[in-house]
Amino acid sequence: MNDNLEFLQAFLKNPLGVGSIAPSSPELSQRMMDGIVPDKDSIILELGVGTGALTKYIQKTLSGEDCYLGIELDRKLVSCIRGKYPDLKFVRGDACNAHALHRRSKLGKVGFVICSLPFVSLPNEVNQKIYGEIEKFMEQGCVFRTYQYAHGFYLPSAIKLREFMRNRYGVSERSSLIVKNVPPAYTLTWRT
């Protein structure tokens, strides 16, 4: 099935959990991967895989299948991405349990958390749990990169994420506006 249609169906089924009507554009995906070089001792953890629009670009950076773990909550999307990327490890699970899911995978240390979760539309208590999971990886030393849509950049939940991360890891590295995305977005990066 067409990625855009699959993604739209997931959005219509769960708009708060999906957060967008279209997958990330090639321009946003490329920007999300700038400077990311994983290996088996510093793997990529992708939170909110969706239809794998970003995974396509992640796969190009991998030196082997033991350099990546993707976590996605939606059962249909997990089935879709497993079919597209059979050599990669995907887990159907909740980002609120990301640290435990990674431990169970028996893969190497997480060096990069690449996140497509819709923090703006998720309930505050869910966001807080996910922040705690991200913090566990950051404490071990890693790069956390996410994106925020321009139209939601100043919404309270978007600001909360940036404040949480800034208070612990300093000001983010923010990209220029990526206008070739629906909707336009910024990438945000923190490093430990």
Protein described:
The chain is an alpha/beta fold and 192 residues long. It has one domain (3-191): Rossmann fold, CATH 3.40.50. The protein has eight helices and seven strands, in the order H-H-H-E-H-E-H-E-H-E-H-E-H-E-E. The chain has a seven-stranded mixed β-sheet with strand order 3-2-1-4-5-7-6, with helices on both faces. The termini are far apart. The relative contact order is 0.16. Mean pLDDT is 91; it is low at 7-12 and 14-19.
Task: Give descriptors for this structure.
192 residues, 7 strands, Rossmann fold, alpha/beta, 19% strand, seven-stranded mixed beta sheet
Could you give a short description of this structure?
The protein has a single domain, classed as Rossmann fold (3-Layer(aba) Sandwich), CATH 3.40.50.
